Amino acid sequence: METETKAQIRRRVLQIRNALTKEQKERAAFLLAERIIGHQWYYLSDTLLCYASYGTEISTGEIIREALTAGKKVYLPRVEGENLSFYRVFDPAQLVKGYQGIPEPGGDTDRYQYREQEADKTLLLMPGVAFDGYRNRIGYGKGFYDRFLADKPALQLRSIGVGHLCQMVEKIPAQETDIRPYQVICV
Fold first, then answer.
1. How many domains does the chain contain in total?
2. Model confidence band, residue 3 (pLDDT cutoffs 50, 70, 90)
3. N or C: which terminal CB in the chain sees fewer CB atoms within 10 Å?
4. Residue 133 lies in a domain
5. What domain range includes position 114?
6. CATH number of the domain to which 103 belongs
7. 1 pLDDT exceeds 70?
8. Quick one: pLDDT at residue 39?
9. Is 57 helix (H, G, I), strand (E, B) or coil?
10. Residue 1 lies in a domain
């Protein structure tokens, strides 16, 4: 069997994910929120680096709302050139359309500063298009999360890739620059 390229996997999985019904998406968002909010890393964290879901990505809305209610510091990504910066969010309603129409902070609040000694109190949730059983991940092809995490080894240990169950594939061809989430949760 011929090995699929990342681009082929991305196209195939996005087609499947885009075909999910409203009920399937709502159930997955509920199950993900239940798994993350009940996760030891979430419980022990005072900081959540998350993302505002876009299109057919698994919804993180409930997780963000719960973290804010619990008094956690919540940061969401903003694309700045070729890089991601995470900015503190106090109300998801204040997000603006950013890179590719994705909701992101305006960039006028505190920016997340990585400190190795505080990484064990931080949880990073990573979106993706596809994941495999070896924790390899395919994003949208720009490498934003790979660059963001490249020099943050302690934060890599507190990262979870999240998605719909249909986003799990048999094998993803990985490259040396690809940063794998420490865990993958697909529901």
1. 1
2. confident
3. N
4. yes
5. 6-186
6. 3.40.50.10420
7. no
8. 98
9. coil
10. no
